[in-house]
Design goal:
The protein has 7 helices and 9 strands, in the order βαββαβαβββαβααβα. It is of the alpha/beta class. Strands 1-2-4-5-6-7-8-9 form an 8-stranded parallel barrel.
């Protein structure tokens, strides 16, 4: 397994902050954050709000890191200014995605992930951001076929989609590991990394 990714970049807390981002980086844990735009500023938030945490602040930490960064674009107008910030900060270890799989124009060389909440067909993007929010589709044959096409598969952990205990989440991580997923996005990134390393995985 290549990466454990912290959902919304949290770390020992429910809220995204510069401190949580810093802690993720220091513990070699990837980061998933939601990006929106307010006037000319890109900010980080799952829901529209009065901005309090800005993307350029986070990038000041990311510029010296090689953790994987997943940028969930919540508002399409945030794409161009986000890419400008990433270029200015010389950050390349990221990919973008939208849950609507918008066709994002690529003027620069960067990765786009395909969002799949059902069995994906004819995927051209290398990274596939997967969840079972619509139906259960994580099966050995399906995942093997995607892996054989050299897709990098990242799964959304169960507790992000439904209320479940840490023990249930751990069982789900083992299931994802057995299927061959390359990464897991979770609310319990530290616990997930500890479990995977205990199973002999290099994260």
């Amino acid at each position: 397994m290549n990466s454990i990714i912290s959902h919304r970049g949290t770390f020992d807390s429910e809220n995204t902050s510069l401190e949580s981002i810093k802690n993720c980086i220091e513990n070699d844990i990837g980061i998933e954050i939601d990006l929106r735009i307010n006037k000319d500023s890109v900010y980080v938030s799952h829901d529209p709000c009065e901005p309090s945490l800005f993307f350029d602040e986070i990038c000041s930490y990311l510029r010296n890191s090689d953790v994987q960064v997943a940028l969930h674009i919540k508002e399409l107008d945030a794409i161009e200014p986000s890419l400008k910030i990433l270029k200015e900060k010389n950050i390349s270890n990221f990919f973008l995605f939208t849950i609507e799989n918008h066709k994002i124009q690529q003027k620069e060389n960067f990765q786009i992930a395909y969002y799949a909440n059902n069995i994906p067909y004819d995927v051209t993007d290398k990274i596939v951001w997967c969840d079972e929010s619509i139906k259960k589709w994580f099966e050995t044959e399906t995942i093997s076929e995607l892996k054989n096409k050299n897709n990098q598969l990242i799964a959304i952990s169960q507790e992000i989609l439904t209320n479940c205990s840490l023990d249930n989440a751990k069982s789900y991580w083992k299931f994802l590991f057995k299927l061959g997923f390359d990464g897991i996005c979770t609310n319990f990134a530290k616990d997930c990394k500890s479990l995977m390393m205990g199973m002999g995985e290099k994260i």
